[in-house]
Structures are given as C-alpha cells and as structure tokens.
Amino acid sequence: MKKFYQFPDWFLWGASGASYQVEGGIYNNDWAFWAEKGKVPPAGESTDHYHRYEEDFDLAKSLGQNAQRISIEWSRIEPEEGKFDEKEIEHYKQVLISLQKRGLVPFVTLWHFTLPLWFAKKGGFENPDAPKLFARYVAHVLSYLKWHCKNWSTMNEPMVWASAGYLQKQWPPFKMNPLTYVHVVHNLIRSHNLAYKEIKKIDKNCDVSVVKHNIYFKTDLKPWNVLMYWFAKWWWNHYFLQRTFFNTDSLGLNYYFQQQFGKSKKFDQNDMGWDLVPEGIYHALKELKIYNKPIYITEAGLADSKDKFRGTYIKSLIYWIHQAMTEGCDVRGYLYWSLLDNFEWSQGYAEDFGLIHVDDKTKVRTIRPSAYEYKKICEDNALEIE
Description:
- This protein has 386 residues and is α/β, with parallel strands linked by helices.
- Helices cover 41% and strands 18% of the residues.
- The chain has helices spanning 19-22, 30-36, 49-62, 74-77, 86-101, 117-121, 130-145, 158-166, 178-202, 223-242, 280-288, 310-326, 369-380; strands at residues 3-6, 12-16, 67-71, 105-109, 151-156, 207-213, 216-219, 250-255, 258-261, 295-300, 331-337, 356-358, 365-367, 382-385.
- The protein has an eight-stranded parallel beta barrel, surrounded by five helices. The chain has a two-stranded antiparallel ribbon with strand order 1-14.
- A hairpin with a 6-residue loop joins strand 12 and strand 13 (365-367).
- 45% of the residues are buried.
C-alpha cells in the first residue's frame, strides 16, 4: 500500500552550492594560495558556474525546484583590504535576478570557508579585528543586494572550518593548536553577532541565519562513552548556537552523518566512508527545537558517483523531515547538497555529491536518475512511499 506524506504549500525544495566549489577562476583566496603550494587540490575552473549559472538554474527549475542556495565569494568582492569590486557585486546581482526570474527563492551565504588572501595574511579569524572586517564586507554586500534577496546566512559550518584548520591541520591555515582553535571559535561567534546587527541596520525585514553542521551523536552505556557523548553534543552542536541564536531569525541545518561512542551496527556507506543514517536528521531537528526558530535544511546529501543510494537516501531523509515536522519542528525547506558535482575541499574532484554530473573536461551537465526521483517529490510537494 502506498503512503503519502504531504508538505505545506509554502515548503521550499531546492539544492545548494558554494562559490569556490563551483564558480571556477578564483585565485585570490587562501585555498588558491595553498593549492599553489601543493597543500590542497586546485579548484581551477571547477564547473564554470560563474559563466554558466543561467544554464544551471534552468536545470534546477526543470527538476521542479523552487529555491537555491548559493554563496558569495568574499575575495571577489573585496580583493584588497577596503577596496570593493563593483563589477563583482553587479555579477552577483545578475545571479540573484536570474534566480528570481525563474521563480527560485535565493538563499545566500556570505562566507563559505574561503578567505581573501589579504585577510588570511592578517591572521584571518585569529585577528582581533576580524569581526569588524567581516561585518564591513557583509554590510557592503547587503547595501547593494538587499533588494534581490531576503534570506541571508552569515557563515557556513563555523565549527567544521575551525576544527579542520586549527585542530586537524587538514585545511588552511594548517595549524594544530587547541587554544587558538577556541579563540577562533569565539571570534567567529563575535563575527556573526556583529554582522547580524549590521545587516539589520540595512534591511530589518530580511531573514538572517547561521548555517550549522550538526551531528547525530549516539552512545552506549559505558561511563566514559556517555561523558564523551554529552561533551561532544554540547560543544559541537550547541556551543556556537547558544551564543548566537538571539542574533538569528532562522537556523540553517547541515546534516551528513552520525557519530557513535561505543560499538555500532554496520550501515551502508557513501563514497566518503560516511554511514548512511537518514533518520539522524530527525534527531538533529528535534535537538534544534529548543531554540524556537524556523529551520531550513541548507545541506543534506551524499557522495555517490554511481548514483546507487542517492534516490532512496533522499526519500528517507524527507520521510524523517516530515516526521520531525509532525512533532512540532518548524522546518521551512530542504536544499539538497549539491545541485552540481563540485570541488570537495581536501578531496578535490574525487567525490560526486551532485544531482547533476559535470564532466571534468567538457563541463557538460548530465542529470542523474536520482534527480528525477527528487523532482517528483518537489513537484508533488509530497513524498510517496510504497
């Protein structure tokens, strides 16, 4: 027997992307600098979304979507300290107009991991002046683009960025210093709070969020594991939000995996080696309910080059999203990560998250079969399960 899970008429369906991961041609930020040194893979021309965004938005529209999440590349807007490139502002204005013409509601992230080279050389978010410098950039963008977007996120996954760069030595600036890590987290908190206030001076009616990557933590009953579970849950999922949620209008949730303290059963895994646990998004949403804010799922997807699990996984995610909504979670939309195959940071182009495959050489776009399964959900505004 088929079961139908209907969503509200206002619910948004779409996909996500980020500037450095898809645009191509960005050579004035910290990631490009370290790529030249051989510390990270080069992004190069990526998918050339910078020039082909209209083609990509046409594809998104053809797949039944009504929203898209993008990011703005700080190093394009402010290539030198205090000097803003108005041609690049105009470019992003045209990107937003292109979305609006297609009936795609834009969600814009103002900072998605990469730093302008001048800012990185000043210490990035280690610098005590970082919140002011970030807020200045944010205010400049909003002053020009406020008429073309109402949904803004100050930053993407601040805890991920700080831990990868200051604890794990995986990302720029390749440090391993717990004290600096904590300092950077606090500066990111200050940066969000100050940026929020600057945004509201410019457009008090817009919606401002922070995008958090939250993990579904689990534990067995061994005392040490229980202790680690509670600490991890507090520090990773809630510490940042507890210090910023008064300066948010909504919350962005990125969900990818669970972490089990103690033994865990075996699950199917995606190409990144992450367990496929779609019900974890239900638990992540229930945790966020305490903040009493609308929630947009800004990323949830998987690396699956063979498209083996993607269709089923998306349906399972959406089932658990619906379940959380029936239990009082104020979820307003789901944006799959990602619309296109793209540059996946330390993995380079080895992992394929996209609903749409992009040929590395020709840049030809090919819609994957799973995208049509998602299309049916978007167009029906409902999930149908056998």
